Give the backbone structure.
Amino acid sequence: MIELAAGGASDVGRVRSVNQDSWVIGDGLWAVADGMGGHQGGEVASRMAIDSFQAHMLEPTSDAVVEAAQQANAAVHQRSSQDAKLRGMGTTLCAMALVGLDGEDQELAVINIGDSRCYQWRDGLMTQITRDHSLVEDMREAGQITEAEAAVHPHRNIVTRALGIQPDVEVDEFFVAPKTGDRYILCSDGLFNELSNEKIGATLRRLVDPQDACSELVRLANEAGGRDNVTCVVVDIVDDDGSAERASAAGRDAIRRRTQGHDVAGIASATTPDVDDDEASEKPTGFPEKTETKPKLKRATWRTLLFVLLFLIILGLAALAVGWYSRGTYFVGFGSHEEVVVFKGRPEQVLWFKPTIAKRTGVYKAQVPEAQRDDIAAGKQVDSIASAKTYLNQMRAIICSNLRNGARLAPPAPGAPTTTIPRACADLTMPPGKSTTTTSTTTSPPPSQPATTVASTKRTTTTHP
Ligand code: MN
């Protein structure tokens, strides 16, 4: 009689809030399921799959294993179509069962749907028995990406086959003749996405007790990031009862794959020695989520941060633009003591950009020609300091011209410093008569050429005889 020992462990991981993985260690039956689907769909699907699979394993035959998996599929699918909240739920199922008649051709049957895995650890070699039903695995097999690329591919959470999605499911089946000392590892992607084959192998070599090995593997996966639920079942072949020898004699000691009842030659998966415990050889890890929970939130957080940053940049640019708009111009207005002052800024204060004094004039409101008083009171806008000077010079010229024509200079506002008008009039050496015309600012257009009029009349005449 084949003697076995098994251990199992599962953990929610360090990122997710719920554990959607389920597992079982039964009588000659071991399984791991990784559920997917919101509203508890993932948990329900994986639990249902395991329970239903176990319940339908009525006899230890390979046909019964496949049949049980298909029954489990039907059960999950039916539940999903009945309960709107659970619609679309599904799960992976990776299971192993001891099949065959005791003492004769007993062997291990491994079935797989999805991307949970079964490994064989024999003589220090890790061999992946199952083939992932995932987009990334398809790409790897097609030679589109390397194994190293597959291990970190952002889409490696996409499964191409799952239990419970369709009314029927195709089940992959594999057979192994157990050998004393073999260890079989059933696990969800939360384990192998965090730990390299070398690391798993080294742990299996280090810890003899299957339960200790499981607990340690789960702990290590969490230590490596724990980005997904982690589940692991280890089955030890304590005594093969001559099974390996008989299988060898019968020429069926290799791992065989069978689909739709037909044997398929060879196992495509590479075998990895576990002797390398070097950290450097470990494959890098990414985000191994199959369902949308915390890792998506993490990405959302990054997106939010990026958005906030962008928003701040835009805000900064807007502030610069407003600053430029409000500060990049000048106006002439009345300051304290009603002094005519050139301000930098806009008459109407834009946001927190207050106009500041750019130039004082020593000219007071009472002295400003009446025609300009209202303009200045409203804030006479000018493009530059130079334009402001031109405007002020025109104003001074009018004042001086008026003074020369006998007007009296109004006194500055009470308490104001002395006016600069007398000095300005001395500076503006303008002939008294001409000054008025110069400062009238309006330039009359030149009289129209009589020739043009004649020409146009002539043309009109020719066009309309
Ligand atoms: Mn998973």
